[in-house]
TrEMBL record:
Gene3D superfamilies: 1.10.10.2830, 3.90.1530.30. This is ParB-like N-terminal domain-containing protein. Residues 1-27, 323-358, 557-617 are annotated as: Disordered. GO terms for biological process: chromosome segregation. Transmembrane segments: none annotated. It comes from Acetobacter tropicalis. InterPro entries: Chromosome_partition/occlusion (IPR050336), ParB/Sulfiredoxin_sf (IPR036086), ParB_N (IPR003115).
Length: 634
């Protein structure tokens, strides 16, 4: 039974067991208050009368707060009769069905309803969910709390990975979590309780975490290291009491200790002249600086160095070879032929950059805004030749087709370029008004030149150089705000604070806070975020272009010279007779054929390289453009 009453919303008592614990969005709360002030309260909140006569809110806490914010003195409420079980069910259903709750809040609501005696069938009806969804919620009871926090934040594992995690004991989850985040937790805090951020999530692989959890029972019989090595690495053996007789049934559940033991054993037992390599997450050995991994398909050289490493996926010791890299130096194989070694660079371990991808995206957006402000500021007094240079520069932009014009719409609308052309060529003849041309040119440049990171619509490096031309660095706002500074890795933020004369602190969070406190309201733009940061890359690009042009010119000249030499090598009968008449007699005992052979051989040796299988022009191009072309003998 329910009764409709009109009461002062300020007299209503909040439900202490309200399942929604997250803080509401202030903007959404304000919007709801304005809506109620305009059209009134449409749905009356549900309340229950307590023993002392007060009315407690069962469902509708947001509506009550909004009515108070809208300064309503009276509102209608439904006074319902019921018990704690029905009140809890109503409160949870109110939030699940009509407003989003986090999964952990839904899960706690389910637990509360079960404690009050509700069946799963009743819960599913109240939630309007399937039994499968309900079972998925109950997995949270078997998941480590920081992982639940990641799920609530939208950066948690997939449903499949969540199932695998829930099958692992909570103690194991806690131990692995603590091991992974040992260096990220604040000083004095337990790393097992560390809650990952969105920045952390960009570098975190949940499937890798699941694989780590799965390494539960690692049996001694599958590994070769001795007891001394096991002790040195901290391996603690346990006995499998149900193992097969006659076998070594010792096992260890500490993946990190087993990995370390394998590394120590590999170092101890490696043959003389063999080097130990670090490995990446894919189980591949990483060649040191100045060397490269030799593929299994490549011919073996005497100078190759044997190498071993431990695969982190299988914990097995693997073997391979590495080869020293030269500056495109030539090398003779056993049969004397010429070979140019591969210009492949050695694979290095993946390191976190100073600024993450999120930070680079922020820089791109801020730069774009600053560039457009700079172009707008130049509308009144831009030099015409600057505009000509700017448009030539713009034609080399990555999006010159033109992609990324923010005035373009797919349904036949007129773009800024169309409007500009109409203004300066209204009757097919150029209107030579300097102000009109200047404004049109800068307006068009602003529509598509940008510093975004999109492969298809970003302008790339030319946009940075355009920013240098128009002084866009002066329009850059301060970058000392939390979202951007969070994109720095710990080494990156360390460099940033040291550049400001501050001391390094134990954690990245402490350094971010110190940097913002030090800067205050001061404008701060780090060097990597400036437009001028692109100048060195631009110069390198121009130098590489010049080198390629020079190499092509040499190649063309050589081809022309070789074609000329081929023409002079053809000797006619008349020319031969003329040579004889002019005293070009053959040496005594030398036949005509031998003479011709000597001439041909000398000319031939002057034009071909040491290895006749490699064309000389190809070798020349490979040496001139090592980053573009390489010759590999197989």
């Amino acid at each position: 039974m329910t009764e409709l009453r009109r009461v002062d919303p300020k007299t209503l008592v909040p439900n202490p067991n309200n399942p929604r614990k997250t803080q509401p969005d202030p903007r959404a709360e304000h919007q709801l208050a304005l809506n109620i002030k305009t059209v009134g309260l449409i749905h009356a909140p549900c309340v229950r009368e307590l023993e002392d006569g007060r009315l407690m809110i069962v469902a509708g806490h947001r509506r009550v707060r909004a009515c108070i914010a809208a300064k309503l003195t009276e509102i209608d409420v439904h006074v319902r009769s019921g018990d704690e079980k029905s009140d809890t069910m109503a409160a949870v259903a109110e939030n699940v069905v009509r407003a989003d709750m986090t999964e952990s809040e839904q899960w706690r609501g389910v637990l509360d309803m079960r404690e009050k005696g509700a069946t799963d069938t009743e819960i599913c009806r109240a939630f309007m969910v399937t039994p499968a969804y309900l079972r998925g919620l109950m997995l949270l009871s078997q998941i480590h709390p920081p992982i639940i926090a990641a799920i609530d934040s939208g950066i948690g594992p997939s449903y499949t990975d969540r199932n695998a995690i829930a099958r692992t004991p909570l103690e194991r989850q806690r131990d692995v979590w603590a091991e992974i985040w040992a260096e990220s937790a604040d000083e004095g805090a337990d790393p097992a309780d560390y809650e990952m951020s969105r920045e952390d999530a960009t570098h975190f692989d949940w499937s890798e975490f699941v694989r780590y959890l799965d390494q539960v029972e690692l049996y001694a019989r599958n590994y070769e290291f001795d007891d001394e090595t096991a002790k040195e690495a901290g391996v603690v053996w346990e006995e499998d009491l149900f193992g097969q007789g006659g076998e070594d049934n010792r096992y260890c559940t500490q993946y990190a200790a087993m990995f370390k033991a394998q590394q120590i054993w590999a170092e101890k037992t490696k043959p003389e002249g063999t080097i130990y390599l670090q490995s990446n997450e894919y189980g591949e050995g990483l060649a040191p600086d100045g060397y490269r991994k030799v593929g299994s398909w490549e011919m073996e050289w005497d100078e190759d160095i044997p190498a071993i490493w431990v695969n982190p996926r299988t914990l097995q010791i693997q073997k391979g070879r590495v080869r020293e890299l030269g500056e495109q130096s030539t090398r003779r194989t056993e049969n004397g032929s010429l070979s140019l070694p591969s210009a492949q660079k050695p694979e290095k371990p993946k390191e976190r950059p100073d600024i993450s991808g999120t930070g680079l995206k922020i820089i791109g957006d801020v730069r774009t805004q600053a560039l457009r402000q700079a172009l707008d500021a130049a509308r009144e007094n831009a030099d015409p030749w600057d505009l000509v240079g700017a448009f030539i520069l713009a034609l080399s932009a990555n999006n010159v087709k033109i992609h990324g014009d923010d005035t373009y719409e797919p349904y036949g609308s007129v773009t800024e370029r169309d409007l500009a052309v109409a203004r300066i060529f209204p009757e097919g003849v150029l209107v030579r008004d300097p102000d009109l041309l200047r404004n049109a040119a800068l307006g068009v440049l602003s529509t598509f030149m940008n510093c975004g990171l999109s492969q298809h619509s970003g302008s790339g490096l030319p946009a940075q150089i355009l920013g240098v031309l128009f002084g866009a660095d002066a329009h850059m706002p301060t970058m000392a705000f939390e979202d951007f500074l969070k994109s720095y890795s710990k080494p990156g933020i360390t460099k940033a604070v040291q550049a400001e004369g501050l001391k390094e602190k134990p954690t990245g969070k402490a350094m971010r806070e110190a940097l913002m406190a030090h800067l205050g309201e001061k404008r701060w733009v780090p060097e990597p975020a400036t437009f001028a940061a692109g100048l060195s890359e631009w110069k390198s690009k121009i130098e590489n272009q010049a080198a390629r042009l020079e190499a092509r010119a040499r190649f063309a000249a050589q081809m022309e010279e070789e074609e000329g030499d081929a023409d002079t090598d053809v000797i006619t009968d008349n020319e031969e007779d003329d040579n004889c008449e002019e005293g070009g007699d053959l040496d005594e005992g030398q036949t005509d054929q031998e003479s011709l052979s000597d001439v041909d051989e000398s000319a031939h040796n002057a034009t071909i390289p040491d290895d006749p299988r490699i064309p000389s022009e190809l070798t020349e191009l490979a040496r001139a453009m090592p980053e573009r072309l390489e010759v590999i003998m197989v």
